[in-house]
Amino acid sequence: MTPSNTRGLKLAGKDTSAAGAAKTGPRPMPGATFARNPGTALDLDRVLAVRVNRSAVERRAATIPTRRTVKKQWQAAWLLRAVTLIDLTTLSGDDTPGNVRRLCAKAMHPLRDDLEHLLGVESLGVKCGAVCVYHTLVPTAVETLEGSGIPVAAVSTGFPAGLSPLSTRITEVKESVAAGAGEIDIVITRGHVLTGNWDALYDEVRAFREACGDAHMKAILGTGDLATLTNVARASMVAMMAGADFIKTSTGKEGVNATLPVSLVMVRMIREYFEQTGYPVGYKPAGGIRSAKNALEYLYLMKEELGERWARPDLFRFGASGLLTDIERQVEYFATGRYAAAYRQPMV
Amino acid sequence: MATTIPEIFESLDYGPAPESDKPALEWLARHKATFGHHINGAFTKPKGATISVVNPATGAELAKVVQGSRADVDLAVTAARKALVEWQALGTHGRARHLYALARMVQRHSRLLAVLESLDNGKSIRETRDLDIPLVARHFYHHAGWAQLLETEFPGYTGAGVVGQIIPWNFPLLMLAWKIAPALAAGCTVVLKPAEFTPLTALAFAELANEAGIPKGVINIITGDGSTGAALVDHPGVDKLAFTGSTDVGRIIRKATAGSGKKLSLELGGKSPFIVFDDADLDSVVEGVVDAIWFNQGQVCCAGSRLLVHEGIAERLFEKLRARMERLRVGAPLDKAVDMGAIVAPVQLERIRSLVEQGRKEGADMWQPSWAVPKDGCFYPPTLFTKVAPSSTIAQVEIFGPVLVSMTFRTPAEAVALANNTPFGLAASIWSENINLALDIAPKVKAGVVWINCTNLFDAAAGFGGYRESGYGREGGREGMWEYLKRQQPRVVGSRYLGRKAKSSTAVAPASGLAVDRTAKLYIGGKQVRPDGGYSLRILGANGKPLGEVGEGNRKDVRNAVEAAQAAASSWSRTTGHARAQILYYIAENLAARRAEFAARLTALTGGDGGGEVDATVTRLFTYASWADKWDGAVHHTPVRGVTLAMNEPLGVIGVAAPDAHPLLGFVSVVAPAIAAGNAVIAVPSERHPLAVTDFYQVLDTSDLPGGVVNIVTGRKDELAKVLAEHDDVAAIWYWGSQAGVKMCELASCGNMKQTWCEDSAARPRAWADAADGEGREFLRHATQVKNIWIPYGE
């Protein structure tokens, strides 16, 4: 009774994320089995032809969590998959090498051994998708994660507002890459979207992509600042045309962060871009995803709209930190039959 | 299927997620899985023949219910009749408390009802949990409000009495709520028959309502098949019938109740269009289609079952649809992660299969997803037909299954033509990001409900019901309340202008010699025409002597008049209220100018106060000139971000057989509201006194009334009324006359299920001269139907 793969979306091969050899410096995304999106020319006709009906999008988004659910071992397995998709993140003014090292340790070892044993999943080698920090902390993270296969992501380009001089922003990207970040989360100039200056947006993202070199680029749209879903859709399309490997909702610093309706719009644009160009672009919702239940809802969304292939670390990430603790609690409940307490999970 | 955690981790498969059926099965077991009727606050002892109630997902028997007999129906109607006095005496607030209690009760037992519904019907627990049951509660809340406000908001009206209600199997408890809530709010008591496939939630509801303190006999549930329903329809103790179901059965009920005086509302079938323009948000359209035709397995009367798509984007949309269909999940209805459950019964599954087979044979392309539905139980996969011709069977008949047929159009006008190319008119869905286009199409589509960029939205505050053969009457909102109300019988004041000798107006004798001959003709399409048959009828004056002759119209004259009315109706309906008002004032002005002549004529005809009748007629024309730009619709408070417009739309072409009393005033009293509301009419004037009306067409002629808006065919009233009532291109028949004529019109209306407003003038003489009885909102309500247009907004 279950549909298998997505018609029309043919992506080769399976994820081999656990096997990645660890080196310092830029490296390919784990398990990538497809060519990176090189971007296309800016096609304004396509950008402006985008139509988004907000009320209809909200209705669909509202039923994604009510049409699907997973229970028992299915829920446990899905939650373990979710762990592998987390960009475990700290982006605070008071970050120091000490708390970043703690974060990295958690990313490498997200589940207690006894839990892994109870679930019989030791062989899966579950670990987080990446660790995401500010530039200054990149060397600490790279050093701590050495040999783990977990990439370091750096937020960049004047994060979170992205309003410093373009040359400064480009230099910042280059320096983070040089410091060993394998993934760069850039922020776009939201004003370009609000004023319909698509050329400027395209040029800016293009420049960031060039500065990234081999490092993968996630384009943060700051959807909470973009005012309309149509703007979100158009900005998504321009960012992909400009060569984004991922499009990402938010910095976590806007008033509204990732939501299911915004995600639905962005994911549909990813599908549209894939159908037009054959290049898959990844999706990263960030900010406000704190519960295991909420994480599952995003996985239903990805599986339903794009297929299971888009729920693997090379095409999907959660930007989160507290989420991991809630997933641990839910998994422990499944393993032991007792509701779990947060203080019994090793701290992030 | 992957079942270990490492396997599932890799595949990300869905697993089983069953909702427990235990509490529902325990409820059945408490009743030993056998139910009598629920009459007068208690279950009757089951006896006689029973019906097996089956879970369509498994084929297992859930329970047995009784096959209701005529005696059972009689028992239930008697209980409802007995309860009526106490229920009405309870008053508005007293009844509001009960409706509120029912709403709360539904919420308290929501999961039991949701699970029971899913078991019985086969629909998914997601739908019963998230849609059916919450809407049931909402309906009782909303109508608790109408119960409270009844006296102030519906002055002069009272409950229709004992109501018989027959509901279908597709939304068993929701249809019960749609029927029972407004009935109770209006002060009626009910006898409701659920469908024989799905009686269980109705029985559970009755039991719970009893516990919630509803007075005995107010809600009675009888189970059984169509013969039980027929007994309820036939029962003389029923004042009003409400039916939701197929058009075929609706037709049978219309026939069975013709001439009985029972109020009737029918919510029948549909083949609703789902129109997609090339500027729509296509990904959202795809989800709209899912909600339109793969909701409740497509077993929805208002399902968007005909996809009409702009030719330029059709292939792209079909490709997106196929991808989406591939991801739908069909399976155990109690699984919380399925999109579609089971078809209600094997007989329905068979009907779907055979219609799909016929569609393939007739040359359309069929597509189904690659996966298979469960073999056991009544399951059918989502199905898409492309390259469907409007002439093919699957494009015309209601399949009532998860089968979508699609056609393409080139222009908005062609989309409208395709949309309206059906005998039905229940609902329509319009998808475009261009508000100008969407709001232009909405009034052009013949449907009682129009959803713009959405579909299958329901709410207690908005009316639901059809145009054409999708039935008449509305459920929900203020418009729905009228179906359960009747006017308190006004004091009959007699015929004010008849039989009173007028002081001054006696027949005017010609001054000298022979008067110039004056031949009354028919008035069709704005022209005076001779009757097709070439015969005339002699008309006698009040003194018993011949006063003149009128043409004897026949069926061909009626045919021609309907064609003329059809030609005029469309542009007249679009004429502004202001312009219609001006014309009505002008008619009044021109009539007033000829007061003496008409007064003399009327007195000669009736022997009454002709001058008084002319003055009253001028007043009446003023009334409807006043109303022409004031018969406003409403904006309903539905729980969406948007507006739900309740628009009063004209019916189109109305056939009118005018009352005999007050030949001119009576004629204008029924014709003026019809045209004020934007209809075109074919009117048959008083058979006894038609000469005042044949004079009147000269007034119409000089008053800028477009030709064809009012057509007058004189002759034998019942003969002509029958032709009008049978005519498929007439939307409504209004008749004032004999009991036999009422019955004849109601029977003959079955062909296209036209609306009827037929009164036995002997049993219910109208005081035409009285504004309270002879004019006003009641007339305008009959002259219009409410179209609810849902317009969600937000960028």
Beta-strand percentage range of chain A: 5-15%
Mean pLDDT of chain B: 96
Write down how many β-strands of chain B occur, each being a DSSP E stretch of 2 or more residues: 32
Distance between the termini of chain A: 40 Å
Structural class computed from helices and strand pairing of chain A: alpha/beta
**Major sheet characteristics of chain A:** 8 strands, parallel
Uncertain spans of chain B: 501-510
Q: Strand order of the main beta sheet of chain A, please?
A: 7-6-5-4-3-2-1-8
Outline of this structure?
Chain A has 13 helices and 8 strands.
Characterization of this structure:
The complex is a heterodimer of chains A (348) and B (795). Chain A is of the alpha/beta class and 348 residues long. Chain A has a single domain (42-344), classed as Aldolase class I (TIM Barrel, Alpha-Beta Barrel), CATH 3.20.20.70. Helix content of chain A is 44%, strand content 9%. Chain A contains 13 helices and 8 strands. Chain A has helices at 44-49, 54-67, 72-84, 97-108, 113-119, 138-145, 166-178, 190-194, 198-212, 229-241, 260-277, 292-305, 323-336; strands at 86-89, 130-133, 152-155, 183-187, 216-220, 246-248, 282-284, 318-320. An 8-stranded parallel beta sheet of chain A has the order 7-6-5-4-3-2-1-8. In chain A, helix 10 runs parallel beside helix 11 (260-277). The N and C termini of chain A lie far apart (40 Å). Chain B is of the alpha/beta class. Chain B has 3 domains: 22-29 and 48-268 and 480-487, Aldehyde Dehydrogenase, Chain A, domain 1 (3-Layer(aba) Sandwich), CATH 3.40.605; 272-284 and 304-465, Aldehyde Dehydrogenase, Chain A, domain 2 (3-Layer(aba) Sandwich), CATH 3.40.309; 522-792, Aldehyde Dehydrogenase, Chain A, domain 1 (3-Layer(aba) Sandwich), CATH 3.40.605.10. Helices cover 42% and strands 18% of the residues of chain B. Chain B contains 27 helices and 32 strands. In chain B, the strands form 8 sheets. A 10-stranded mixed beta sheet of chain B has the order 14-15-16-13-12-17-18-32-26-25, sandwiched between helices. Chain B has a 6-stranded mixed beta sheet with strand order 9-8-7-10-11-19, sandwiched between helices. In chain B, helix 20 packs antiparallel against helix 23 (691-701) and helix 21 packs parallel to helix 22 (663-676). The longest helix of chain B is centred in the first third of the chain and has 29 residues, at 125-153. Chains A and B meet through helix 2, helix 3 and helix 12 of A and helix 1, helix 11 and helix 12 of B.
